[in-house]
Amino acid sequence: MTAELSAGARAELAPSGVLRAGLNLSNFLLVSQDASGGAPRGIVVDLARELGRRAGVPVEFVGYASPGELADAAPSGAWDVAFLGAEPARAKVISFSAAYLEIEATYLVPAGSPLMTVADVDRDGVRIAVAARSAYELYLSRTLHHAQLVQADGIEGSFQRFVADRLEALAGLRPRLVSDHEKLPGSRILEGRFTAVQQAIGTPCARPAAAEYLRRFAEEIKAGGLVAEIIARNGVRGVSVAQLL
């Protein structure tokens, strides 16, 4: 059954008559855009268009270079809905749905590393390269007790820092780490995960009717198979449909 969209929720979702969807362009699994700056494509683009279709409004995409920049723009009203990892630090300004999709996060370690499991990484003397203000960096900042995070600008920046500074581990999304592993002979991706990034749909906190609709929308598209269909249509590996509430 399609979630009912009230007039109040529609007005909060698209107050200008256009649904402005904020995209984290650094998440290559969910969105891509060619160098010419053409129309974006990917899982979140398809979801935004479905949301616009149900609301009966056109969709405009607002791209950001990082998830931190996307989250920072919430109070300004630069976007109406956003697709990004749900983290407590972001929930101060963004009302999130439950996750619609999960992405495993783990570590890459260099050749000859004594670190064998995810649990081994959180120890004194271990330096972890990580993309600043990514969802998994926010998680590690809350949960690590001994290891040191070495922040870098973006995913590629964290890989470069890992290599250049000979760090003990690189934190990242498993699908990206697969490609990084191929560049570094002898490196290993640790089995298991330290978290699964919960990709959700958010709207600025001052829009309660829109937030409630997005919560119902997220559950419906999981239960009805739309998320799985869109993942398959885009040929994305390394992501999975999140559990129903």
Indicate the topology.
Layout: H1 7-13, E1 19-24, H2 43-55, E2 59-64, H3 67-72, E3 81-85, E4 94-96, E5 101-109, E6 127-131, H4 135-143, E7 148-152, H5 154-164, E8 169-173, H6 174-183, E9 188-189, E10 195-204, H7 208-223, H8 226-234, E11 239-241
Parallel strand pairs: 1-2, 1-3, 6-7, 6-8
Antiparallel strand pairs: 3-10, 4-10, 5-8, 5-9, 5-10, 5-11
Helix pairs in contact: 1-7
What is the CATH H-level superfamily of the largest domain?
Periplasmic binding protein-like II
- Fraction in beta strands: 15-25%
Output the helix-strand order.
HEHEHEEEEHEHEHEEHHE
Q: How many domain units?
A: 2
CATH domain class of the largest domain: Alpha Beta
- Separate helix tally: 8
Structural overview:
Helix 1 crosses helix 7 (208-223). The chain folds into two domains: 7-101 and 197-239, Periplasmic binding protein-like II (D-Maltodextrin-Binding Protein, domain 2), CATH 3.40.190.10; 103-195, D-Maltodextrin-Binding Protein, domain 2. Helix content is 33%, strand content 24%. The model has no long low-confidence stretch (mean pLDDT 95). With 245 residues, it is an alpha/beta fold. The protein has eight helices and eleven strands.
Summarize the entry for a quick read:
The protein is of the alpha/beta class.
